[in-house]
Amino acid sequence: MPEPKQGFIGEQIFTTSRVPRDYVLHHLYKIFSGVLYSIENQDEEFLNEYCEKNFSDKLMKNLQYYKSKGFIVKVETDLSGISGEPV
Fold first, then answer.
1. Considering its fold, how many domains does the chain have in total?
2. Whole-angstrom Cα distance, residue 39 to residue 62?
3. 74 vs 51: CA distance, rounded Å
4. By three-state DSSP, how is residue 40 classified?
């Protein structure tokens, strides 16, 4: 059975841009975390800046709907991997 190949596009971006992989992944993690916390705080300005327009509009509309129904959005941080070991 042949071994699975690495994703070509991702590898090409990392090798041609000469940007360290860890730097890019850390940056993407910060944006991901920021989007989660902005959902929790309903920070429309952040969502409009870092998310696609239609996505952020629908998200804010749904967040307002669920808030009016009494739901609370809470972000929980769990830095353990699948096996329970720290990441």
1. 1
2. 11
3. 20
4. helix
Tens of pLDDT along 73-84?
888 877 666 666
The verdict on residue 87 lying in a domain is no
What range defines the domain where residue 44 resides? Answer: 8-68
Tell me the one-letter amino acid at 60. Answer: M
The predicted model scores a pTM of 0.66
Of 34, 45, 47, nearest to 75 by C-alpha is 34
End-to-end CA distance of the chain: 30
Of 65, 67, 54, 59, residue with least CA distance to 39: 59
The verdict on residue 60 lying in a domain is yes
How far apart are the C-alpha atoms of 18 and 43, rounded to whole Å? 34
Q: What is the pLDDT of residues 20-65, one digit of tens each?
A: 878 888 888 899 999 999 999 999 999 999 899 999 999 999 999 9
Any domain includes 83: no
Which uninterrupted H or E stretch holds 26? Answer: helix 21-41
